[in-house]
Amino acid sequence: MKVLLVGGGGREHSLGWKIAQSPLLTQLYLAPGNPGLNRLGEPTGVSADDIDAIVMTARRHGVDLVVVGPEATLAAGLADRLAQASIPCFGPSAGAAALESSKSYMKEIATAVGAPTAAYARFTEAAAARNYLRTQKAPFVVKADGLAAGKGVFIAETLTEADAAVDDLLGGALGAAGREIVIEEFLDGEEASFFVIADGKTSVPLIAVQDHKRAFDGDKGPNTGGMGAYSPAPVFTDAIHDQTMKKIIEPVIAEMARRGRPFKGVLFAGLMICEDGPKLIEFNVRFGDPECQVMMRLMQSDILPVLHAAATGALKPGELEWSRDACALIVMAANGYPGAYAKGSTIAGIERAEACDGVVVFHAGTKMRDGALIADGGRVLNITARGHTIRDAVERAYRGVGEIDWSDGFYRRDIAWRALKAFL
Ligand code: AMP
Ligand code: GLY
Fold it and tell me: What is the DSSP letter of 367?
């Protein structure tokens, strides 16, 4: 099978790493790839957001499957274009990607099927939004409706802060993404990310992963794309798994099919595990980054037939096989991230890190310059490790981090603290 993989971050490196282990793979093409991925396949020079070039490249190489990492190209209609060209695509149509690209669409679907989610109201006028806030209790949750790369959510302790978020968003701070806003009930609990692969009608569960969204130790500092992750997630018990499938995933997949927007690809449910069960915070229509990296390290089944079956509507119900090990991932990020940061400092020691027991390193924001590996993004490296327990996995991952020689980066030193505390 010839596969074209779209994207060039840590998520895509781990997907490529797993796909490359499939005996069914004959050639892996990359759009655009990264220095880690490029050793596993053939870079095409095509960027992840160039829909025309992706379709042309897929056609030229006669690929059997396009696997899409990032959401922006899906929301812009990559899967629809590939469908017109009769090229199987792992990733939803723009219509189905609205589950992520429009918070109010996600809420409409969740409400239609009675899936547990925070109570909400939507607004385009600041005055109406402010009035509504005054009927609610703190903390206030104010969100941009559209895709805002993690910058569209404000959790405000006071009405003054909440009003400011409303004014900023509706005043155009995030452009079109904030033209409409959603104000919702604050959910109290522990978060987990849960994933299923779907082919439009059937869904197959993956596993739950917990990540750390804040930049600094103790879950302090600004929100990021994720600073570390681990699985298993102790908070995601079998009972929570069953409730999530029955009350959220299965009804939503059925409702999307009923509305003529069948969901194909990976559905990522951001959940709050509350005292009375799982509640849906958000959907994403792609693998999580860095959650994907953890899942790829623990998946025993061959992923390629599953991705192809999902893309072609041939998914069989059932479970995939997973290692009984735990996996931990530490993100090494550029100083300053998620704010402004410098690029271009050299990185060494990846081979030494990978010589540590259980360690695999995925590149997230790196680049080759004059034969040397340099930092080229906010999140730069993902150090993953497997171990028999979460504690083992975490210790091994930090041993790997210790081998990396990079002066311009930082990382959190408390990845998986909740899980480690739960086992004390
Ligand atoms: P989102 O982009 O919708 O996932 O929101 C980003 C983060 O904000 C989530 O991962 C949560 O930590 C937090 N968050 C979003 N909505 C709520 C809510 N209703 N209650 C509590 N926390 C929330
Ligand atoms: N790590 C969270 C995300 O991928 O959105």
Answer: E
pLDDT average, residue stretch 399-412:
97
Mean pLDDT value of segment 166-177: 84
What's the confidence (pLDDT) of residue 152? 84
DSSP secondary structure code for residue 322 in this structure:
B
Atom 3, ligand 2: which residue's CA is nearest? Answer: 288
Distance between CA atoms of 98 and 101, rounded to whole angstroms?
5
* Ligand 2: nearest atom to the Cα of 284: 5
Give 97's pLDDT tier (boundaries 50, 70, 90): very high
Task: Report whether residue 226 contacts ligand 2, using a CB cutoff of 6 Å.
Answer: yes
DSSP string, 399-417: HHHHH-B-TTEE--S-TTH
Ligand 1 in contact with 186 (CB < 6 A)?
A: yes
393 and 322 in contact (C-beta within 8 Å)? no
Average pLDDT over residues 289-295: 98
pLDDT of residue 423: 58
**Ligand 1 center from residue 162 Cα (angstroms):** 15
**pLDDT recorded at residue 110:** 97
What confidence score (pLDDT) does residue 43 get?
A: 98
Q: Is the CB of 100 under 6 A from ligand 2?
A: no
d(CA 141, CA 378): 26
Q: Which domains does the chain have, with CATH numbers?
A: 2-91 (3.40.50.20), 119-184 (3.30.1490.20), 188-311 (3.30.470.20), 326-422 (3.90.600.10)
- Ligand 1 proximity of 183 Cβ (cutoff 6 Å): no
User: Does 150 have pLDDT greater than 70?
Assistant: no
